[in-house]
Amino acid sequence: MKYLITLTLLVTTSFTQFSWAGSVSSWKQFTQQYSKQAEEKLKEKSVPGAALTIVHTQHGNLAKGIGVTKTRGGKRVNEHTRFRLASVSKTFAGSLTAKLAAEGKIELDGFVSDYLPYFENTKYKSLRVYHLLSHSSGLVPNAYDNLVESRMDYEDIKARVLNVEAICEPGKCYGYQNVMFSLIGDVIASATGISYETWISDFIFAPLGMRDGGVGYENMVRDTNYAEPHVKGRSRWYTTKLKSHYYKVLPAAGVNASAADMEKWLEAQLGLMPAVLSLDALTTQSRPYTLTKRELRRRTWKGSIEEAHYGLGWRIYDYQGETIYYHSGWVQGYRTDVVVIPRLGIGFSLLLNAEASMLNELTTTFITQVLEREASSLEQLQLDETH
User: Fold this and answer.
1) Structure confidence by residue, pLDDT tens digits, 324-356
2) How many folded domains does the chain comprise?
3) For residue 161, which of 152, 171, 151, 173 has the smallest C-alpha distance?
4) Are 96 and 188 in contact (CB under 8 A)?
5) pLDDT given for residue 236 in this prediction
């Protein structure tokens, strides 16, 4: 598998060797053009608000708010306005676990039962830690997500999940999870004696300078600078109640962040914050643990993805020959996307406070335009060198 050959090189080689071939001015022009294009598209669909972040390791970043926090009487979204990340939260769980593994605090190949003894007498006693984060536990996809959306406590939901019949042996098939995935929080607490919430707030957010967001419902509503959720009615977007259901599964869907926060997160993913996320951690999280063939059939980029896997909390794609890391999120009233293109030192995130499917188009447009401009810039450089 070519990922295993190339991923370590992509992460551990200095990003200054693989950067956007154009100049600082051309990069800034590109980000401004894309930002304007995205704003126009969002306005066309009357999407209430968005947080856009674009990062380049050499040529500069963009972090801005677009629109309003709610359709009626809302405030302007700025770069510090909090959004729910929904399943983009899984990238934080994956990166944190990779960090702890690199520091010798957790064994990814260790049995979950080594950390959570109540697994020992269940059907999942052979489950390993990396199975949780790579959606390869053997469970049917989205097992008991319906209970997450109910009033049932997470402790009761976990007990039920462990009684579900597996559809395959651990590591043999892909089944996207929220409940089972979030058991990594319990594993981390058992292994380190520190809660998952504390690890994220004190060892990720704080040292990275992510000052706006955090973990959980109370963090989201701690002041008025947060984007409220919206659902589509017959003719317009309606503000809906911010629900706490998916905050039960913090590792899977419990993180909040602003455009400014995502700037720091993307910089860390691109190797600029090695004291927080080392090169060992970044290499570990991007190992392609689980084959995800269904991703090859995604409508918005069908034909562009040649290979698709899931690492530790991150999707890993061969996108038109370029390795990219990606994740999306969707919870009532919000849609989110995050993209990392490690070879080019480029990161992107777009957070919406509406369930707007056009997010797929905006993300695909960004990736396509970046790769096209990179190819064009390299071609121009080669022509210049021959004259």
Assistant:
1) 999 999 999 999 999 999 999 999 999 999 999
2) 1
3) 152
4) yes
5) 93
Domain that holds residue 173: 2-385
Among residues 339, 60, 78, 20, which one has the least CA distance to residue 227? 78
Three-state SS sequence of the chain: CHHHHHHHHHHHCCHHHCCCCCCHHHHHHHHHHHHHHHHHHHHHCCCCEEEEEEEECCCCCEEEEEEECCCCCCCECCCCCEEECHHHHHHHHHHHHHHHHHCCCCCCCCEHHHHCHHHCCCCCCCCEHHHHHCCCCCCCCCCCHHHHCCCCCHHHHHHHHCCCCCCCCCCCCCCCCCCCCCHHHHHHHHHHCCCHHHHHHHHHHHHHCCCCCEECHHHHCCCCCECCCEEECCCCEEECCCCCHHHHCHHHHCEEECHHHHHHHHHHHCCCCCCCCCHHHHHHHCCCCEECHHHHHCHHHCCCEEEEEECCCCEEEEECCEEEEEEEEEECCEEEEEEEEHHHCEEEEEEECCCCCHHHHHHHHHHHHHHHHHHHHHHHHHHHHCC
- pLDDT, tens digit, 9 for 90 and up, residues 86-98: 999 999 999 999 9
Question: Can you give the CATH number for the domain in which 194 is found?
Answer: 3.40.710.10
Give the closest residue to 252 by CA, choosing from 140, 92, 83: 92
Other beta carbons less than 10 A from residue 272's beta carbon: 17
Q: Which of 9, 108, 44, 7 is nearest to 361 (CA)?
A: 44
- The whole-angstrom separation of Cα 150 and Cα 119 is 24
How many whole angstroms from its chain centre is CA 387?
A: 44
Residue 261 and residue 273: Cα distance in Å, rounded? 14
96 and 270 Cβ atoms separated by less than 8 Å: no
Question: What whole-number distance in Å separates Cα of residue 2 and Cα of residue 245?
Answer: 40
Tokens of 236: 């317009």
Work out whether strand 237-239 and strand 230-232 pair parallel, antiparallel, or are unpaired: antiparallel
Burial class of 21 by CB neighbour count within 10 A (0 to 12, 13 to 18, 19+): middle
- Given a contact cutoff of 8 angstroms between Cβ atoms, the answer to whether 117 and 124 are in contact is no
Residues of the chain with pLDDT under 50: 1-18
Which tokens sit at 113? 């039962």
The single residue listed with the structure tokens 């049917």 is 140
323: its two tokens? 């390795």
Q: Are 252 and 182 in contact (CB under 8 A)?
A: yes
